[in-house]
Structure formats: C-alpha cells, structure tokens
Design a protein that fits this description.
The chain has six helices and nine strands. By secondary structure, it is α+β, with helices and mostly antiparallel strands. α3 crosses α4 and α4 runs antiparallel to α5. The longest helix has 24 residues. About 25% of the residues are buried.
Length: about 250
C-alpha cells in the first residue's frame, strides 16, 4: 500500500539512492529510491514490512503509517554505504569520521557496535557509552586498566582512555581537569564514575609507586570507597533501576 501525508520538507535524491526513512515505530528504516519523476520520488522501504512511498520532490514528504493515520510524516536522510553490512560501523571508532553523519547514522552505528560488544564509541572528544546490561569479560580487567597508563596513548573509545586524558592533562599542564558523566536513568552513570575514579586513583598511585614504591595512601583508598556515600544522596527506585542515582556526575 501507498501512504502520503504532508510534512514540511524533503531532500532531492537520485534514483537508486540509499536512504533512511523516519518511522514512529522503528525510529529509522532503511530504504531505496526506486523511481524518480519530475514531481515525485518513489521510495521502497526495506525489511519484512516492505512498502512503497510516494514522496513529493519539494514542499512535502510522505508518512510511513497506516492509511488514514494522522500526524507528521518521516524525513528522508541519505544512507552512506560505509555503514552498510555487519562490520561497517565497527570500522568507525570515532563517529566524526563517518562520511554522512546525522541522527540515523549515529543510531545505526551505535546499534551495530552494541550488538558486537563494542559499547563505547567516540564522537570527537565525547565518549558515547551504551549500557550492555551484561558482563563483558576483560573490558575492565586490571590488564586493560594498566594498558591505558601512558602519556603517548591517543584518545580511544574506552572510559579508561577518557580518564587517562584527564590524568595526563593534570601532569602536563598542572591544572584541574573535569570529567562530566551524564545520561538517562539506568544508562550507567554511577558505574562509569566508579571506573573513572578507579583509574585516577590507581594511576596516581602508580606514578607514586614508580618513585617511592609505596602502596595506596589512605586518601586514595577513600576515593575508591566514596561511591556508596555519594549514592546515599538522592537515589530512588525507577522502572529501569532499583537504585538510580538521579543525578549526573561531575568529577
């Protein structure tokens, strides 16, 4: 069936162009322009519920919905071939390197990387983390943590790498550094903060041990043990989490 409901704007695409079509149920669906006329584009939605949309070339766009449904229709965004295939998104640790970057490309890349156990993705200096809700063996092991103790390691998609950048900034510039952890309830802010604090405390101790061979100080141990106290303020039970911190983390 074909459905057409007016919205504000549509970009001009050539025949055989791969596109993303916004959807109320699936957020974004892959599609392809199968035919172009002077006034319309014919877009075929890929997948089990394949259907064809008629999209005016200018002024309005079609809505992916049941016949007669009300509401604004989808946008069309160009789908870059570099993200196609199971391993396409795995080649982009930094989303700023994706040739055609927009909302659909970001969500597709994060989804593919998540399925393959890659929960961390960079977007320039910002680290995006998706809560895996499962144990990823070795991701936070002592060996992994110590692998980031270096002033020569560039920023990589891992929370230890972000913590290392802050630590190296203190050593190089002698000025305070800030790590801001934000996200919705259940996204993993508290656990992420624990990993940052763990890295900073152990990295500082490692620097001291290399010079004086002393163990962790009382202050360093207190830093690592401070999270239960912090969590006692403002935590609440939510639909996603029995112990949601309800606030961002500013370290």
């Amino acid at each position: 069936p074909m459905t057409s409901v007016a919205v504000e704007e549509v970009l001009d695409f050539e025949e055989d162009a791969a596109v993303w079509i916004s959807s109320a149920s699936a957020v974004w669906l892959p599609g392809k322009v199968v035919k172009c006329t002077a006034s319309e584009l014919f877009v075929k939605v890929e997948g089990p519920e394949a259907q064809e949309l008629r999209v005016p070339r200018s002024g309005t766009a079609a809505v992916l919905a049941k016949p007669g449904a009300a509401g604004a229709g989808p946008r069309l965004l160009r789908r870059d071939a570099s993200l196609d295939g199971a391993g396409g998104a795995l080649h982009f640790d930094d989303l700023t390197e994706v040739p055609e970057l927009h909302e659909a490309a970001v969500l597709e890349a994060l989804d593919v990387r998540f399925v393959h156990g890659q929960i961390y993705t960079l977007s320039g200096p910002v680290l995006l983390a998706v809560n895996p809700f499962r144990t990823l063996h070795g991701l936070y092991s002592p060996e992994t943590l110590h692998g980031f103790f270096s002033d020569e390691i560039p920023l990589r998609p891992h929370i230890f790498s972000v913590a290392n950048q802050a630590f190296q900034g203190i050593l190089r510039h002698g000025t305070s550094q800030t790590v801001l952890v934000s996200g919705e309830s259940g996204s993993g802010k508290t656990e992420t903060t624990k990993f940052v604090m763990q890295f900073l405390a152990l990295a500082g101790a490692e620097a001291v041990v290399s010079q004086t061979s002393r163990p962790l100080s009382r202050v360093e141990r207190q830093v690592l043990r401070s999270n239960p106290l912090l969590e006692s303020f403002g935590n609440a039970k939510t639909l996603r989490n029995d112990n949601s911190s309800r606030f961002g983390k500013y370290i």
